[in-house]
Amino acid sequence: MSIELKNITYTYSPGTAYEIHALKDINLEIPDGQFIGVIGHTGSGKSTLIQHLNALIRPTSGSVLYNGEDVWEEKYDRRKLRSQVGLVFQYPEHQLFESDVLSDVCFGPMNQGMSREEAEAEAKKALLQVGFKEKNFSKSPFELSGGQKKRVAIAGVLAMNPKILILDEPTAGLDPKGRDEILDQISELHKARGITIILVSHSMEDVAKYVERLIVVNRGQIAFDDTPREVFSHYQELEAMGLAAPQITYIMHALKQKGLKVDPNATTVEEARDDILRALKEAGSPLLKGGNEK
Ligand SMILES: Nc1ncnc2c1ncn2[C@@H]1O[C@H](COP(=O)(O)OP(=O)(O)OP(=O)(O)O)[C@@H](O)[C@H]1O
């Protein structure tokens, strides 16, 4: 189930005074099963890019291939594609409209042609997988907290059994605890279903913790496409794009400059902790005498 973007450009309002070249010659290959982060400054083109992945917008030039087939061929079934490449928009909770949670999540699969019974089975599975409790299935979506609403919205797309799930800032507007819970659940989902996850995020800490591949978009182009570790080693270039590496990367660079033999490219707090302890131990540091070793 690979997606390929070939020489994609996209221009809003072409030929007018408001013309904006949102994407410029994008080439991208997304094989099965990866957990990918997409990061970039506001207005860099992330949303425009992901809408190409499920043929919601048609490129100005270039082609989008799904399993090798051009999705903009006249006879291509783009409706089917959209159920296989599920897209959860920013603030999806604004799109809940049924009277109860279960019916809301059933809407997508029923729209795809499933019976209510089949749809309910998929909906329940999806809701439980995103950590939504069964006792709340009959509640009105309007009674729910922000985090619960987001779960319902994600389950609504998941219930259609997508092969690829794209989430545009799924944690926007949540507090840190709600944010971690949702991201942990998305990560679990990736493991349990083995589907491709594409996570658009503004948080370097979040992508560093979860994704295996990080795509950095800058002014409509792909600036980096690599492991988070490799991308963050270019932190000075990221800064020039209005981005930054995770704070821990800066701390590790500072420690290295002070003479501690740490790996400056650690990207998560856990990785950094282990590496600092190792370096302190190797240096025979008195700091470890308090029994603080792992
Ligand atoms: N419907 C639209 N009409 C005209 N211009 C648009 C439209 N949507 C986006 N743009 C412009 O295209 C460029 C890319 O926008 P896009 O929304 O893809 O960026 P983004 O990286 O997703 O931003 P954000 O992080 O704020 O969501 C920006 O200059 C934006 O102003």
What does the model show?
- A 6-stranded mixed sheet has the order 6-7-8-3-9-10, sandwiched between helices. It has a 4-stranded antiparallel sheet with strand order 2-1-4-5, covered by helices on one side.
- α3 (101-111) packs across α4 (116-129), α3 (101-111) packs parallel to α5 (146-158) and α4 (116-129) crosses α5.
- Helix content is 39%, strand content 21%.
- The chain starts with a strand and ends in a 12-residue tail after the last helix.
- The model has no long low-confidence stretch (mean pLDDT 91).
- It has 294 residues and is of the alpha/beta class.
- Bound molecules: adenosine-5'-triphosphate (ATP).
- Residues 12-13, 20, 22, 40, 42-48 line the site of adenosine-5'-triphosphate.
- The site of adenosine-5'-triphosphate (ATP) has 12 residues, from β2 and α1.
Keywords:
AAA+_ATPase, 39% helix, cell membrane, 294 residues, Energy-coupling factor transporter ATP-binding protein EcfA2, alpha/beta, 6-stranded mixed β-sheet, binds adenosine-5'-triphosphate
| Largest sheet, spatial ordering of strands | 6-7-8-3-9-10
- Helices and strands: which structural class? alpha/beta
Distance between the termini: 42 Å
Give the integer mean of the pLDDT values.
91
Layout of secondary structure:
Blueprint (H helix, E strand, L loop, with lengths): L2 E10 L7 E11 L4 E6 L5 H8 L7 E6 L2 E2 L7 H7 E4 L12 H11 L4 H14 L16 H13 L5 E5 L7 H18 L2 E6 L2 H7 L2 E6 L2 E6 L1 H5 L2 H6 L6 H11 L11 H14 L12
Parallel strand pairs: 3-8, 3-9, 6-7, 7-8
Antiparallel strand pairs: 1-2, 1-4, 4-5, 9-10
Helix pairs in contact: 3-4, 3-5, 4-5
Bound molecules: adenosine-5'-triphosphate.
